[in-house]
């Protein structure tokens, strides 16, 4: 038993509120009365209604105490205790008591409140444990509580489903009990057993043959698919090569096409210029012409307007 485990056990007992001061030195030598008091207190703390024999004066009483405590812990807490080590009442017994102490201390840490200790006794206490209650702070972790809640819901669902299945099976038990008893009470004949075994062997052989045939068929199908895949791959390569060849070849009509395209562009440009010239109109400002003399000898001043439309006649 390591010193760390001894110290951890002492601290856990203080945190759980054991009414006596427990130190590491108490377990240097066998101390069965202290071990009996500790185990009885732990069992009472786990279930206050249990009856633990406290008489440990004789060897037989100690054996009865160890067996009863181990049985109670196994039934209530589902913890297995080595009775031989517990009977030694030294550091090895602390290792067994630590199992129950860890369970209770973990429950206290996971609780929402803060456990309170009782007043220390024995006359050898320190200033930190005498004269009042001792509080052990407990940290509250909301995330841990949420995960525990999810796990609890899952377990509740599983318990409900298992209970329903168990109920159905117990309902069928009344009908199946008679058939089971009849089958168990019937005398087995070697001929019937031999026939049943041969029938089972023949069925297994038939299943083996069908499985072998299926494996062979799968192998044949696999070979056929492999050949089809190879053919498709060869065809794909041939098509890709054909595509590359067509991309590299220049068609024979491309020269004529480019020549006609150039002529078309020139003709289109000429049409655009001609349309622009035909649609434009130039208006000249009115000019004064020297007065001309008419037949009557009078001077006439008439403005003359020149329009570009007259030029189109030429």
Automatic annotation (TrEMBL):
Residues 119-131 have a biased composition (Gly residues). Keywords: Cell projection, Cilium, Cilium biogenesis/degradation, Coiled coil. Residues 190-249 form a coiled coil. GO terms for biological process: cilium assembly. It comes from Notodromas monacha. This is Clusterin-associated protein 1. It comes from the Eukaryota. Belongs to the CLUAP1 family. Residues 112-133, 285-314 are annotated as: Disordered. It is found in: Cell projection, Cilium. One of its GO terms (cellular component) is intraciliary transport particle B.
């Amino acid at each position: 038993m390591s010193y760390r485990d001894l110290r951890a056990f002492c601290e856990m007992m203080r945190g759980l509120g054991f009414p006596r001061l427990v130190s590491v030195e108490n377990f240097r030598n066998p101390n069965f009365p202290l071990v009996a008091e500790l185990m009885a207190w732990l069992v009472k703390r786990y279930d206050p209604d249990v009856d633990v024999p406290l008489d440990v004066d004789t060897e037989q009483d100690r054996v009865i105490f160890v067996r009863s405590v181990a049985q109670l812990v196994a039934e209530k807490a589902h913890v297995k205790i080595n009775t031989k080590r517990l009977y030694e009442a030294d550091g090895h017994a602390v290792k067994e008591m630590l199992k129950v102490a860890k369970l209770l201390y973990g429950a206290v840490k996971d609780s929402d409140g803060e456990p309170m200790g009782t007043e220390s006794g024995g006359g050898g206490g320190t200033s930190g444990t005498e004269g009042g209650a001792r509080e052990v702070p407990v940290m509250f972790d909301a995330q841990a509580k949420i995960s525990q809640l999810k796990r609890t819901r899952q377990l509740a669902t599983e318990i409900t489903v298992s209970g329903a299945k168990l109920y159905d099976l117990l309902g069928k038990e009344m009908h199946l009990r008679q058939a089971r008893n009849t089958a168990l009470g019937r005398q087995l004949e070697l001929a019937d057993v031999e026939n049943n075994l041969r029938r089972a062997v023949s069925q297994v052989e038939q299943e083996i043959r069908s499985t072998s045939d299926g494996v062979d068929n799968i192998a044949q199908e696999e070979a056929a698919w492999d050949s089809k895949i190879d053919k498709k791959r060869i065809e794909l390569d041939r098509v890709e090569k054909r595509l590359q060849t067509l991309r590299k070849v220049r068609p024979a009509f491309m020269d004529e096409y480019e020549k006609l395209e150039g002529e078309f562009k020139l003709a289109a440009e000429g049409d655009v210029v001609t349309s622009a010239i035909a649609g434009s109109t130039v208006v000249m400002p009115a000019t004064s012409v020297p007065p001309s003399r008419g037949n009557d000898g009078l001077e006439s001043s008439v403005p003359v307007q020149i329009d570009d439309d007259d030029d189109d006649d030429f």
